[in-house]
Amino acid sequence: MGGIPRFDRPIIRYPSPPGQLRGPSAGEDDYLDKLAKYVPAPSVAFVAVASGFVDSDAFGWILIAVALLGTWLYVYIRGEVPVWTYGLVLVAALVWSFCATDLGGRLLSLDAGARGFVLACGTFLIPAADTALTTKRTRATRDDE
């Protein structure tokens, strides 16, 4: 009978006309890869668990500082990455730490709607910034050759 359909046919990619967006080429991250790269899961998990034990604003800010340091170390250990990755990952860690936990409400007086809005914007704009910077670097490298 019908069974499970097979999807083992190769994906055919047609060249895009000049000026149109193209998919990632070999070695480039697509949007989902970038999104996964800029969701600092260990830092968010640390903040989510540790924020339950924080009873003052001062310790909350110390918690954020430790999370940012840990995020920076994860990127540093990962090896050679473009320099802007450090900045984007730290911004992502701030956005996710403040908006995916209740810490943003406690330290920054953000209500749930504001935290959701900032998180949505960060989830969209941080990978977009990485794409823009990568594209600019790729074009500059091609122009130098």
Radius of gyration: 20 Å
**Beta-strand content bin:** under 5%
Average pLDDT rating: 80
Number of strands: 0
Largest sheet: none
Please provide the ordered H/E string of secondary-structure elements.
HHHHHH
Helix percent band: 55-70%
Q: Please state the overall shape, judged from the principal axes of the Cα atoms.
A: elongated
- Please indicate the count of domains: 1
Number of helices: 6
* Parts with pLDDT < 50 across at least 5 consecutive residues: 11-24
Structural class of the secondary elements?
mainly alpha
Q: Kindly, what is the distance between the CA atoms of the first and last residues, rounded to a whole number of angstroms?
A: 57 Å
What does this protein structure show overall?
The structure is a single chain. This protein is mainly α and 145 residues long. It has one domain (31-144). Helix content is 66%, strand content 0%. The protein is built from six helices and no strands. The longest helix has 33 residues, at 112-144. The N and C termini lie far apart (57 Å).
